Amino acid sequence: MALVVQKYGGSSVADAERIKAVAQRIVATRKAGNDVVVVVSAMGDTTDDLIDKAKQVSPLPPGRELDMLLTAGERISMALLAMAISNLGHEARSFTGSQAGVITDGAHGKAKIIDVTPGRIQDALTEGSICIVAGFQGVSQGTKDITTLGRGGSDTTAVALAAALDADVCEIYTDVDGVFTADPRIVPAAQRIPRISYEEMLEMAASGAKILHLRCVEYARRYNMPIHVRSSFSTKEGTWVVDSSEIEGHEMEQAIISGVAHDRSEAKITVVGVPDKVGEAASIFSALSEAEINIDMIVQNVSAASTGRTDISFTLPVTDGQAALTSLNKLKDRIGFESLRFDDRIGKVSLIGAGMRSHPGVTAKFFGAIADAGVNIEMISTSEIRISVVVAQDDVDTAVAEAHRAFDLDSEQIEAVVYGGTGR
Fold it and tell me: What's the domain of life for this entry (predicted)?
């Protein structure tokens, strides 16, 4: 008997009919002889609706109370799903994140999982129950307050539970048939990727691919937990996210490029006229670190000989833009930079593939495709298996489509279907 952990996103449990369909899929897995633990997201747009309600009451709701409010969405889903399973003649028990033993730090709105102690889940499985767990939430180790894990937190909950329970697989059910070589909404001819390595999936998630959350993939890699990405709207095979050694055993030669990802959720800040002295860049990024702002791409211009000053540009989540500007303005007199420029009309386009390590010419081909499309590159960043560029937001779709075509990733027949319309 295998232990299967399944996660269903918001579009998969968007209404009563979808919940009943998911219940049938879960019961089928149980009838196949598996123990089943299910993690659910809030129904449809419930989380966004709750955030809107909070802002109607308070422009800046306290983090503790906002977390208490937002976790209600997943509790609704888990209870309704348990009822639907019970109606099919199987015992199901629902658990909040804290009841399931998901222990986090105390950072409201973006808590990190510290430990998972799934004693109650194990007891329920031993007694023959199907366990339904509310995703996206846990309990603070220090304060015992309810916390939320941030966007994509249900993915992370599922993988963390799978690792703690020593499950055989973690199945992530969403509204597309797996991981594709590009977003099907932009590139209808995108191909499904049958198997992809943790490293490539990490780069794709970090580059804006919304199919899996970054922390979820990090957790899976750490515990070598296979992730099976599938659609709850079909029975197609989906995509396996596994260790690279398992891919090498399935394919004679790995594809050079796995896919093209994009991200419109970033902004660019340029610190203009920074004195070219030791420690100034450290002061800038230390201030941003203290404000808990994650920086992505960084570019520093060559210092102008006549002025001894330079410009430093970097990208960050657009939601952190105001906080970053506030932190940097506090440093203006001490550092002596001239001004700050903020641009939230940018997008990031990334080419990902482990095969580029051993294939020269990938960078030139990527830049050539973007140039041929008439798109200007503002910033460049690379890793061993990724090349990212920042372009104007209006040019993102064109750059993605041209790069996808340049590396022969277009499928001859349309196989990418977005069932639920949200991509999660």
Answer: Bacteria
Domain check: are 205 and 286 in the same one? no
pLDDT digits over 328-350, tens only? 999 999 999 999 999 999 999 99
Domain boundary, last residue among 249, 271, 294:
249
Last residue of a domain, one of 228, 249, 270: 249
Residue 12 structure tokens: 């998969």
259 is in an annotated binding site: no
- Is 7 annotated for ligand binding? yes
Q: Is 9 annotated as a binding residue?
A: yes
Is 175 labelled as part of a ligand binding site?
yes
Sign of the C-alpha dihedral computed for residues 47, 324, 289 and 207 taken in this order? positive
pTM of this prediction?
0.87
Q: For residue 47, say whether it is annotated as part of any ligand binding site.
A: yes
Does 89 count as an annotated binding residue? Answer: no
DSSP letters for 259-314: EEEEE-SEEEEEEEEEE--TTHHHHHHHHHHHTT-----EEEPPPBTTTTEEEEEE
pLDDT tens by residue, 223-244: 999 999 999 888 889 999 999 8
